[in-house]
Amino acid sequence: MPIITTHNLSKVYNPDTVPVHALRDVNLEFEEGEFTTVRGPSGSGKTTLLNMIGGLDIPTEGHVEIAGTRITGMKESKLIEFRLNNIGFVFQAYNLIPVFTAYENVTFIMLLQKRSKQEMKERAHELLSAMGLKDKLDSRPKELSGGEQQRVAVARALASRPKFILADEPTANLDTDSAMNLLDMMEKMNREENVTFIFSTHDQRVIDRARRVITMVDGAIDKDERKSPPS
Amino acid sequence: MKMLLSIAWRNIWRHPGRSGVLIGSIVAGLWAGIMVSSWGNGLIDQRMNNVINEELTHAQIHHPEFLTEREPRMFIEPFDEITSFLESDSRVKSFSPRTLLDGMVQSSATTSGARIIGIDKNRERETTIFHQNLVQGEYLSDDVRHPVFIGEKLQNKLNVEIGERIVLTFQNLENEITSGAFIVSGIFRTGQTIYDEQTVYVKNEDLGELIADQPVYHEIAMMLHDSELSDQIVSDLNREFNNISAETWLELSPEMRYMTQFSGTYMVYIMIVILFALAFGILNTMTMAIFERTKELGMLMAIGMNKVRIFVMIMLESVMLTLTGAAFGMFVGYLTVNYFNKNGLDLTAVGGDSFEIWGYGALVYPYVTPQEYFYVTLLVIATAMLAAVYPALKALKLVPGEVVRD
Lengths: 231, 406
Fold this sequence. Notes:
The complex is a heterodimer of chains A (about 230) and B (about 400).
Chain A: E1 4-13, E2 20-30, E3 35-39, H1 46-53, E4 61-66, E5 69-70, H2 76-86, E6 87-90, H3 102-112, H4 117-130, H5 146-159, E7 164-168, H6 176-193, E8 196-201, H7 204-209, E9 212-217, E10 220-226
Chain B: H1 2-12, H2 16-56, E1 59-62, H3 66-69, H4 79-88, E2 92-106, E3 111-119, H5 121-127, E4 134-137, E5 147-151, H6 152-158, E6 165-171, E7 177-188, H7 193-198, E8 199-203, H8 204-211, E9 219-224, H9 230-240, E10 245-248, H10 249-252, H11 254-292, H12 294-303, H13 307-343, E11 345-346, E12 363-364, H14 370-396, H15 400-405
Helix pairs in contact in B: 1-13, 2-11, 2-13, 11-14, 13-14
């Protein structure tokens, strides 16, 4: 059973003035454990697709199902709760809470989930260590490099034990070393913990590492290619 | 909640300068409000104490129509029975019978209207502290025949000195005009211009000779061991004696009644005005804070922070920011009020002596009651919450998808 299914997903912005077709009849399925990239030029609908899958935006037509639950049309408060427990987000601009330390940023989402103190502590240490940030637990975002901040963001996304992680242009603001390092971390989590990652990107470094590459053009799926797993 | 408190507190200090300016303005505003209110309380208290201790006392007895008609023939009867009652009542600390006449006072220089009060010097001294207002001479000297004790302003107006003669003219019990010569034995100053210019004290036996060949009394002023007993004793006196009217100090002085009622709400009104002005500062700061953080708030909603928590977080930021300023403001206000409560706040240098015209002294002992501090705290919290509603609602309207994409 696919973890994510999109059914005839369409999105039109400004339908009454100057309609912009951001998505056109998108039908996709994502299986658990995928390491997928959605590629395409700017304005091709990558971010819109991720926002639809993440329940951050409402489609004009069609719907999204996550693990059999239809999230399109869900009541807002329920949708927020659903996102909290099922979806991890990594944003291009990191979007960490600037007044919190790396450790607090990671535990914050678990606090929202009302996890026990012990579990939060263990999970945050485990994730930040896995991200190579063991010595940066008490650093605030402004004291971290871009790559480090993005790794904290990935740790935060993983902390809630989501069904999958949506990463919108996660390497766009990173230099090559930081980008490769981040991809290594994410690949490791995907391989070792079977975490599903879906990226939107036009960064070739990310595309090269993905096992499935979906190409979008003008809001529609142009290609959906799967690479054979590394031997 | 702990998490929300933590994030809200830290959010306040993202821009220490901006928050500091707002906190500073709250401190200044509350300090000023507390000072003005405490000074007002002090003035009211001073006025009440002056009026009660110097002349009004806790309760008074009159002929039922005397206070409206002020006719000399409306004296208290049966005087002896009433005084026996008062002497035997353990609630009464002391009492002073007075003869009250309206008339004229004349010196070689001029003539002026006068409120003439005949007293038993010793009883009045036991009952009031009026004698403490003596600034010159002697308080109704026994060495002088027909001594008179007059206010400093009246002395200046009449241009008389101690030992000089003045003439008092008034109606006797038959409504005939009668006069008597009195020797100025002492000068008083109460600080109340009108009182000092119009009031003369004489012995009531001297007045008695002139109005009825015997002492008559229009007023019995009584001090009680506890002012709270005034309602009770007044009620007992009115029940016991038919031809008199006993009233408490609050009934006798509408001015005091209004002041007592006003003193409880005085601070609240001042604070409402100050906090209303501060609310715009809080609103501005919170709105700026929200506009600066739209992306972050969108991210919080995206990752799973529900709108109730977002709303509470913004409210907490506003309340904590305002309460921080309020706590400092109240603390500084408390210290200042405490200092001046012990040492007195003398406004003579800034024209405070002009208050004397209205019966207030320039030296005031300000105070604020714990209840007033409590009301201020409630008002501060209410202001902070009201000022934060608009920015909080703005934040709730954010659509995470749009904010994150932008």
